[in-house]
UniProtKB/TrEMBL annotation:
Gene3D superfamilies: alpha/beta hydrolase. It comes from Lactuca sativa (Garden lettuce). InterPro entries: AB_hydrolase_fold, Peptidase_S10. The lineage of its organism: Eukaryota, Viridiplantae, Streptophyta, Embryophyta, Tracheophyta. The chain crosses the membrane at residues 31-55. It comes from the Eukaryota. Pfam families: Peptidase_S10. This is Uncharacterized protein. The keyword Signal does not apply. GO terms for molecular function: serine-type carboxypeptidase activity.
Length: 115
């Protein structure tokens, strides 16, 4: 499942995430938040090239088998995350952490419905 969560005062920052259920027991398995180092690197690269699905045969056993994972494109302007206004496109370490906290706080409701 992938979508956006609006953060900031008027939800002018739209953070893109890709949520993958655990392959074993999604309701009881832990939830992991994947942030790719950067700045400016999309977390989708982690999904595709580091722990993800690019295997010819289904012999891989790892995080995807026993963990629910959220791949988050943060800060704003990274990957598919975007700002609705020029002012919202500005980012620094404090805004980055505030946006991440708000994403987690708002996202808990979404993931409980789909988890």
């Amino acid at each position: 499942m992938c979508s956006y969560v609006g953060v900031d005062v008027n939800e002018d920052v739209q953070l893109f995430y890709y949520f993958i259920h655990s392959e074993s027991n999604p309701k009881d398995d832990p939830l992991m938040l994947w942030l790719t180092g950067g700045p400016g690197c999309s977390s989708i690269s982690g999904l595709l090239f580091e722990i993800g699905f690019l295997y010819k045969y289904n012999i891989f056993f790892g995080q995807l088998n026993m963990t629910n994972i959220i791949f988050l494109d943060i800060p704003v302007g990274t990957g598919f995350s975007y700002a609705r206004t020029a002012h919202a496109s500005c980012s620094n370490n404090i805004l980055y952490s505030e946006h991440a906290y708000e994403f987690i706080r708002k996202g808990r409701v979404i993931w409980k419905m789909n988890h």
